[in-house]
Amino acid sequence: MSCNSKDIMEIPGYYYDSQVRRYFRIDPAHPRTCASESEPKIASVKSLKPRPNHTIDILHQREIGTFKHAFESSMVALSVKHLQCVKEFEFDCPHRPSQNVTFLKGGKNCVYVQEFCEISYSNFIKPRANFLFPSAREARFEYRLAGRLSIVDLCEFTKPVWKLVAVCSDSKTWNVTLSCAITGESTPLDSSKSPIWCCTSNDFTSHMVWGKKDCVVQGVLPVTGPFNRQRVEGEVRSIEFNKRGTLIYIGVHTGHVQLLDNRTRDIVFRKKVGNIGIDEVVLLYNEENLICEAFDGKLFNVDLRMMRPICHYYGHLHSPSHKVPFSLSESNDLLCATGTDNVTRLWSLSTGGNPMKLVQPPKKEHPCRSWLVSDGCKFLVYQYQREKCYIYGNGRVEGLNF
Fold it and tell me: How far apart are CA 238 and CA 261, in angstroms?
């Protein structure tokens, strides 16, 4: 406001501050002729804004958190609601008996399927390089006989070279073997006749760890020994690394989640989050949430800061005798799992509750497994049953060759 304004009465020896609307005495050592000289300096000072406590979290929410908006959430729910079979094909494996799917798990570069008949196991590997745009040529699977080796769990390495490693158990001797699922090369791992229930890997450290009764065993790729054994209370049924490989999240048969610090080789935290054993754990990108699957079929999201479930996914049916990994997509806010009734269910990853979609198998009497594949805002559900694979989408996925 100007000093000549009619609204301001000039008082000798004082100046008027328009911001606080008060008169102040002029210091003789620093004389000020009028209020307008000080106002530009006051106006040039930028107002201080509160800084976010977790900048990385906010950036991550900007990246994938758009689905919290009502419009984006409704679009994803609409796409899931209108899922339908957009393509189906048979395994390119002539002269083989029909078999039942016993294990399915996806990685960064492939989806691994194992089937079983009275004679032996069979393995199928589907490259994931062009998963969202499958053609007839890309639909072919690699097929080979696996003998008596039953896949317990598998993990994937992408550095320095891509390698898919499976933990196998001999159905007659129960000797545990590490097998390269691509080449079929196997390495004896443990002959103590103590079962192994799970395994996981970390590309940053090239470490692989597997869980046994009362301990976890860790080695460096190639896993030839010596192995580092760390005592853990309970049967280790599920295991997961963080990004840098410094922490290992362990689910045991008593329903506890334990945290192993690789730097100190100690269990730094132990908390009971379920009433029964934890069969599968998956750590989300923010490393603050852990998706857990219990023996009784309960699926829930555990907040690691509070160490308690914050949401549940209802309706899932799980068998404690068979490991059936679930899949998820944070970018699409989806969680996918197949139950013992062979029905595939899809939930909202962030809110949980009842399933948004039930995908019925073509033949209810045969075992079925499904896996969710996503890339950005696009997603497909691959469903495997006996000699066929069914692809479910919303009918508008570009690149599908019918």
Answer: 16
